[in-house]
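Internal ticket - ligand job 598, cobalamin:
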Amino acid sequence: MDAYLFIDFGSTFTKLTLVDIEKEEVIATEKSYTTVETDVTIGYENALKKLNQKVSGDYNIVKKLACSSAAGGLKIIAIGLVPELTAEAAKRAALGAGAKVIKTYSFKLNSSELEEIKNSNADIILLAGGTDGGNCDTIIHNAKMIEKFSISIPVVVAGNKSSNDEIKEIFGEKVEYYITENVMPNLNHINVDPARETIRNIFMKKIVHAKGMENVEKSISGILMPTPAAVLKAAEALSMGSRDEEGIGDLAVIDIGGATTDVHSIAEGAPSKPGVVLRGLEEPFAKRTVEGDLGMRYSAMSVFEAAGIKKMKKYLKYDDLDIEAEFKNRYTNTSYVADDEKEIDFDEAMAKVCADISMKRHAGVVEAIYSPMGMMYAQEGKDLMELPYILGTGGVIVNSKNPKEILQAAVFTMEDPTSLKPRRPKFLLDKNYILSAMGLLTTIDPNMAVRMLKKYIVEI
Amino acid sequence: MEKKKVVLGVIGSDCHAVGNKILDYSLTDAGFEVINIGVLSPQEDFINAAIETNADAILVSSLYGHGEIDCRGMREKCEEAGLKDILLYVGGNIVVGKQDWNEVKQRFLDMGFDRVYPPGTPVEEGIRDLKEDLNITE
Ligand code: B12
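stdout (structure tokens):
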């Protein structure tokens, strides 16, 4: 039997998914601890050994593809001109590429900002600024500064096209750079896909080598993208379909991890009611937001801060726990596994807080403007009120007995009356934890990926 | 020659959209590149748009009567944002009710607007002035 093997080098686990190509079925999944401090090959081989024990009969692996968020994932610094415009557009492009945006800078950079960039552990700089034909001064100044400070981080240039020639001259041989389309070609339009693909290419060709991953590269066909980018690709495939396969339409993915909660929405988010005026920057159709303060372990204390006792109590079934101590325990002991009913309930209450707050930050808001003629409304961000599906993934949701209850916390309530959160979505579950694998599959056979997603993502 | 760029919008909590559409159409037709930020636009949106696009002029509309409050401090913010010599025009129904036009106009000129238009000004007048102020000859 011919098979594909998909590998996800996560920060904690290395996950394998073996797929029967002909039957379009998941033969087996397996995981083992990621071993990035030594050599990730070890963890990969451990998982492979366990996988082989599960599979009866021979299989022939045609392709092994991987994604990775190990060793801190892909870290990007985004630079733009105006904070709300090109700097924000650059940030969104980087997030869409599956990166962690460690800092966003705007306007003309000064020496101390460059020192900061130089001393950062960023993998890529995304340099934007100016609409096409618009402001050139700032991006050119910033390019000169990057050259002057001999920054050795690769730079993706995605700004005003009119400044590209000059930037090429400035960088010359001294700075490693890649020119791509403007993230904001004109004011009412953002264009994140070309920058996203350029970043992904650099990640694939360069970044992965430097991360204790050079050995494992020899035994697999390629580490194609950061894990969040693979999840976003799978979400896009399930939503929009492929050339031959129908998608299921608009959806959002909530991915609750140990350190962060990601929300991806594949939806235009246009106002669902008449008489609403749109404000602010255009939203990417496939949008990813990352909440660095919402996660089950590494970010446990910041979840406590964001939620407060009151919100936790709203979601907790048992009220005789020392809430603060529970958070502290999870934060200090990140490999903690909840095993009794009370502890599991606490974990799930935390997950509900993550779902609730992350969706609130992802969805848009609507503001009422009073006039003697009645109310007018201004919307900022995406209107997800009528969104048909929310898909849950990430350990705490996948392993839960009540995944639906966790996802339910992301739904609109009167506690946040101005939020444009989904009101009556159906809930889907990534039961076999295969979203990132399916994201990788889209690069080989998009039709098959859509068919498998429709088969394995179940309604709950 | 490269097109001159104008940022267009309706300031404050003002949602009168019709004039804005007409201005957009007419200015585009007259050969300008129009960056229309639409209704309900705070001062900052005009300024940010002008920075990113390197615009030559900002055309502010105010129809609902609160123009004076909404426009206050705009010139100073432009200076602050590095938009040194940008042209600032304002028009529509910029104040409430019937006030002496010359006084109204003077107040807006004092706020740093280059041109101030009374209610019912035809678009052509604004376009003529823009061409003059930006030295467009054809
Ligand atoms: C339609 C309308 C509405 C609609 C708007 C629908 C929409 N979304 O567009 C609704 C019902 C929502 C509405 C609401 C209100 N409106 Co009303 N509305 C009008 C009305 C009848 C027509 C506006 C219009 O579309 N005109 C047609 C366009 C083409 O003309 P224009 O907007 O004036 O723009 C042209 C010129 O002024 C000029 N121009 C405009 N800006 C600029 C800028 C520059 C630089 C230049 C050169 C030229 C220029 O060029 C434009 C194109 O030709 C006017 C009365 C009128 N006849 O003007 C009142 C009027 C503007 N509204 C008025 C008021 C008070 C209100 C309300 C506060 C409450 C109320 N009493 O109705 C609310 C405000 C809501 C809000 N938050 O903005 C007053 C304003 C009074 C004042 N300024 O002293 C007016 C004048 C009516 C009146 N006589 O009382 N309104």
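Auto-summary: Residues 341-362 of chain A form the longest helix (22 residues). Chain A has three domains: 2-71+211-220, 74-205, 251-442.
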